[in-house]
What does this fold into?
Amino acid sequence: MSRVPLTGGAYQARSVAAAAQRSVNLFSEPVPEAQGEPMPAANYPTPGTRLLGTVGPGPIRAIRQATTGGIYCVSGNGVYKIDPTTWAGTHLGDLTHGLITPVSMVDNGLDMVFVDGSANGWHVTLVGDTFARIDNSDGIFMGATRVDYLDTYLLFNKPDTPQFYSSDSLALTFDPLWFANKESYSDLLRTLVVVKRDIWLFGDKSTEIFNNVGKPDFPFESAPDIFIDHGIAAVYSVADYDNSVFWLSADRQGHGIIVMGSGYQTKRISTYAIENEVAGYAKISDAIGFCYQIGGHSFYVLTFPAADKTWSYDITTQLWHEWVWIDTNGDEHRHRANCYWPINGVPVVGDWQTGNLYALDHRVFTDFGGTIKRVRSFPHLVADGKRVFYRQFLADFDTGNAPDTVATTTSVETIVTWLPDIARLNGVSVGAITTTFGGVFIDWPRGLVYVVGQTGYQKYTTAMVTQTPLVTVATPGTRFVSAADVDPLSGDLIIQTDPSNPNGVPIYKLDPTTFAVLGTFGVATGSPSYPASVWQGQSIVCVVANGVSFGFVKYSVSSGIVSGFRVDTMAHSGFTANIVTGSTNNRGSMIAGNSGGSAASVFLSWDATTAPAPSVPLYRIDVAASATAYNPATWPTPNPGITWVTVGTIPVAAVNPAWTGFTVYSLGYDLADGNVLMLAGTSNPADGQRVLKLNALTAAVMWSIAIGTSIVNLGGSRINGSLWMIRNPGAGAGPTSSYRIDTLTGTLTTQPITGVYAAADTQAQQSDSDTSVMFYGGNFTSQTGAPNPVTGTGTFSAGWSFMGGQTTRTTITNAAIQGNLISLRWSDDRGHAWGSPVEQPIGDAGAYRTSLQWQRLGLARWRVFELSWSVAMPTSLQGCYVDATPAGS
It folds into this structure.
């Protein structure tokens, strides 16, 4: 049998006929030649992730342990102090709202300093944890992309200039003359890093090095006769380890080569295969780099958010591998790690999407409980161009480490509180709250509520306590509020408002704490024209695709047009389309669909202003990962990453065969399975309403449930496998019914309840699956069978409250483990097309003699084999042995 070792890393050449080797979630470790082993290298699993805790809304943009031992991180816009025992965070303050890019932080022994690329900076005193903005009353501090520390000084790059500047020694004060220019080449300074007491200054096309020479007028001076002809293509790609620095480079000849700098010299570390891969990405300027060390290996990790890819370079072996996270559908994505810092000996990474903090652990073989897919392709097997018969493939694989077939697991069951609690929101005072003058907008993930009215804004929480507003801001005069939503990334309030109600109304991004204006899209005008302005809207929704939040406004003035914008820049996104047709004045409902991954979706249909019809359409807007690469300056060329389609039509017979037509009251999106919910009814109140589930790809009705008369706001609800509402029986708070729908199975649970009457306002009922809480507007009377009022809540009429609650129960169960399999597939056209994988058991626990072999694999002239598995087990793959017999020609 022929021995086929695996001595390299990931290498898929420009043509797979030359090389088609993937190495996914595996890194290579050489076996010393003197040991006399049959295989020269072993491929080991990359570390798994173990959840430590969740801090803030996410993403985790930076984490660092201070020299004094304190642990700090940035989650979303918030700065948090971390308790290393519980990994819980205490919120200290906020950075610039609306940004999700990495944050740079470093301490000088007295203060931890934060910069986020804006003109501001912040610090936390390491004694007392007092958070404050860096004083800039003298106009000297200019912000930075990165801050670093050297010899008691804090160093900053001055954005959009060739300059860097420093603080005074062990201070956060600044001398106006303490700065220097990067001047060997005329490019701008983009970022800096301190390596081995040298300051590396990265420009667009070149890099210079400064040293501390101790001069009294400014301590730092350019190192003589040193010029590096590589600048930086992605400011967040720079990372240092030991005496070296790594980055994605750009120079006067091009960009996209990954280099290492050490001892004033640079070395290309990317291969032709990696460079060809990077050249195919629509955007590389967003690349994020960091270094980590585990198990004797040191890695430089480079993530391309827009491309949804993560590559890892083993600094010791100089080999690359793909670092992949897979979702529940089995699709590959960038790794969850967004930033890194070793904390008390534990390598800790922060999640790029959520507020999760994970430990990297080479003894863990899952991603926080999820499957890790591992793939290794082999070199091309060619017998002098002759056809051969492959009798056997034998994997040189460490078996016997698979998990037991039965494992003890702990599950937590949510138990809904019944009768529910009720807690009133006191002090609601923002003028009229109608579809023309505002509404109630709930940020369920952050637990915040925004009440928007004719004369002001107020902020509450979703906590089940009697409460007064956290913030009240009065607007000057009376305002019309056309539409609003909460940005899922930043938590900012996105609102279309104007005092005079013109045809064209600007969209504002408001600070969620102060309601100060952070940005504006469009202008007030009598003749709006996209993209300079947009028509008065009927609704706004925001979704996240590939790390960027996109907003969509559905026009309301006899128009079915939907136009798009980016929330981070408040610039147009290159999308406007006439989608909704056939309804009264082309009006419609619009809700966010899939959001937060590499792609996103938005769904639309008609609304309740349209008379019952025999069929109703469902539309979908799709936002691809490539939408983030669109350049607004190319308009009127549209954004190819944003498209729309008519999913299908819903016939009345599928809703209720007894009806002759129906109308749409609201739409919702089920996070549990990615399908759409619709609240439908007729013009006859006696018919009641029905909730139906629609397939998001075909609009087919999956189930339909009668709920009597219940005006529930599906779009404002967080639906994740369940939906809660109550009937509207009449103006009195008498006996009624509570409805809970299992949205996955389409089953309804009815319970009696008294003392509540929900208003007919479409916003009066918005519920949350995850907390079993409902935002409730209407009347409440304390009586037998009614909700239990919390302290401070009494009988009320036409009030606003939260109702519900839940407890948890922990259960220990035995669960069978399935899928201890390994698969082999192969390509006979040099890696272009692959056959179906052939699976076999990977071997039981303790079965170390298990031989992983595949027999009678057919004829081929060129053959590429590939092994893949996702079993959570320690193992190694050294290569394979192949028994092949010539077939003559």
